[in-house]
Amino acid sequence: MRKRKRDTKWRRKNAENLRMKRDEIFGKICKICKSTKRLCLHKKDGRAHYTDQYTLKKALENPQEWVRLCRYCHDGVHWCMKYLGWEYNTIVSQLVCKSAGADT
Fold first, then answer.
1. Which among 1, 16, 49, 78 is least buried, having the fewest CB atoms inside 10 angstroms?
2. How far apart are the C-alpha atoms of 25 and 10, rounded to whole Å?
3. Where are the domains of the chain?
4. Tally of CA atoms within 13 A in the half-sphere of 22 that contains its CB
């Protein structure tokens, strides 16, 4: 019983450390809309992945392959990838062009 409590405590502390590193590397805002709510990590190539500690460790090892998005932008990015065949960089460049055109 004691060993189990220590293992649980260690896992909780390890998960907390991973979350702190994630926030340090990827920030606490959506890269597209600047929201701070319902954030997740998105793999830029659009391939499916699980949302567990193993995936978080992979993201921390290769941060250039991942981006922080809110759930709404994440769903929108996947829609553009699936139905328009766009890559992540194309989506971001199109959004920048649209928002720059709105100001003028």
1. 1
2. 22
3. 2-103
4. 24
Residue with tokens 């502390």: 13
Residue type, 4: R
Question: Distance of CA 20 to CAs 5, 17, 27, 84, 87, Å?
Answer: 23, 5, 10, 35, 29
* Whole-structure pTM value: 0.74
> Tell me, what amino acid is at 86?
W
Higher pLDDT, 2 or 55: 55
Position 102, amino acid: A
Cα 43 from Cα 64, distance rounded (Å): 9
Element (H, E) at 67: strand 66-70
Q: Residue 74: which H helix or E strand, with range?
A: helix 71-79
- pLDDT tens, position by position, 10-53: 677 778 888 888 889 989 999 999 999 999 888 888 877 666 66
